[in-house]
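Hi F.,

I've been meaning to write this up properly since the lab meeting, where we talked about keeping a consistent format for the predictions we share between groups. The idea is simple: the sequence comes first, exactly as it goes in, then the structure tokens exactly as they come out, then a line or two of notes. No screenshots and no reformatting. I'm using this chain as the first example so we have something concrete to point to.
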Amino acid sequence: MLALVAASLFAGQAEHPVTGRKIAGVMGVQGADWLNRPEREKEENPEGALDALGIQPGMVVADVGAGTGYMSLRLAKRVGPAGKVYANDLQPEMLRRLRENAGKAGLMNIETVQGEEADPKLPTGRMDLVLLVDVYHEFSKPREMIDKIRESLKPDGRLVLLEYRKEDPNVPIREEHKMTVAEVKAELEPQGFLLTKTIETLPRQHILILTKAVAANAAAGH
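Output, unedited:
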């Protein structure tokens, strides 16, 4: 989520300890409507992003920083009744609105989870995929959160970050709400992940796919 239209709820760590990247503030519920703006379809191509990830029926996935459910509802439709979506957010009002939106859509396979700054509160070892859409750069305790997310993944599970391209000055987003591929590698690979694939098919965002280092090495025959 991008803190462009609302007051920040952020407090705490100001920079990532590895890269020195300035950590952005978290969007408050006052900006919830901005998350569902019509322009977002063109700016982010959410369905195209999910197509690139190969979401299959029956998968168990998490949408961390889910807000009002913009991506959670799309995920829920793709994993189907046999699958499940854990929709995480820090803010109870965001989750209340997400449940309301899921109810209106008739989606019964979404479980909302109120997390903490250092813990998304996801079940251990259950996730096929954890999705962070414009969210990772806002983690006030990024190393703690990534450790917990890693614990939530199955051995072959994937962590996927969508982040606005800091390498591209034409992307009209404030710098602290963008990330480079190099920053993601530098920050996450020391925590037991490998950046295994980068997809650049979206209008403004990187799709960054990470897997557990042990699983990735085993698959490569190391």
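Notes:
Helices lie at 32-35, 40-44, 46-53, 72-79, 92-105, 142-152, 181-188, 213-219.
The CA atoms of residues 58 and 85 lie 10 Å apart.

If this format works for you, I'll send the rest the same way.

G.
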